[in-house]
């Protein structure tokens, strides 16, 4: 059974930022962590060497992030958010919705494109997939993970800047 790679929509700015992070992690960060591990090994008994274990744990986190960034950049769809005149909800848009009388603003897409502190919903999430392609003024319904049907009114949809 083959799995299709997960595609991520990114702005050019976000792709450049992630590529710079990847270059740093593959270069200076990797070199630094290897030196720290070697220095900790030189101290002797590794069983009780907290510095060695902390450095190895950090190395694991760096390598996991490198794999994540490589995959994301290899399978990225790079573009600009749709024009705000369209009024249609799409990737890279800041969306304002009304859910049961509560107004909520969030970014639709990947958390990697968010440069500010804003909630992010994937287009593959129940809410995200329900509002993709909806227009301002539309009301859509989606099934929450708890099985409840939730109505969402689209109030605004504008490119995330």
From TrEMBL:
Necessary for efficient RNA polymerase transcription elongation past template-encoded arresting sites. The arresting sites in DNA have the property of trapping a certain fraction of elongating RNA polymerases that pass through, resulting in locked ternary complexes. Cleavage of the nascent transcript by cleavage factors such as GreA or GreB allows the resumption of elongation from the new 3'terminus. GreA releases sequences of 2 to 3 nucleotides. It holds the Pfam family GreA_GreB_N. GO terms for molecular function: DNA binding; RNA polymerase binding. Belongs to the GreA/GreB family. One of its GO terms (biological process) is regulation of DNA-templated transcription elongation. The keyword S-adenosyl-L-methionine does not apply. Residues 9-78 form the Transcription elongation factor GreA/GreB N-terminal domain. The keyword Transcription applies. Residues 86-158 form the Transcription elongation factor GreA/GreB C-terminal domain. SUPFAM superfamilies: FKBP-like, GreA transcript cleavage protein, N-terminal domain. This is Transcription elongation factor GreA. Keywords: DNA-binding, Transcription, Transcription regulation.
């Amino acid at each position: 059974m083959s799995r299709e790679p997960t595609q991520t929509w990114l702005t050019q700015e976000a792709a450049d930022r992630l590529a710079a992070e990847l270059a740093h992690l593959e270069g200076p960060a990797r070199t630094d962590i290897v030196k720290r591990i070697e220095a900790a090994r030189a101290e002797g008994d590794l069983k009780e060497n907290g510095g060695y274990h902390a450095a190895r744990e950090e190395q694991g986190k760096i390598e996991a992030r490198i794999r994540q960034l490589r995959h994301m950049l290899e399978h990225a769809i790079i573009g600009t958010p749709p024009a705000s005149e369209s009024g249609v909800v799409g990737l890279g848009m800041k969306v304002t919705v009304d859910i049961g009388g509560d107004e909520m603003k969030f970014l639709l897409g990947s958390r990697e494109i968010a440069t500010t502190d804003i909630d992010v919903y994937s287009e593959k999430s129940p809410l995200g997939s329900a509002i993709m392609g909806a227009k301002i003024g539309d009301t859509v319904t989606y099934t929450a993970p708890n099985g409840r049907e939730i109505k969402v009114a689209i109030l605004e949809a504008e490119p995330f800047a």
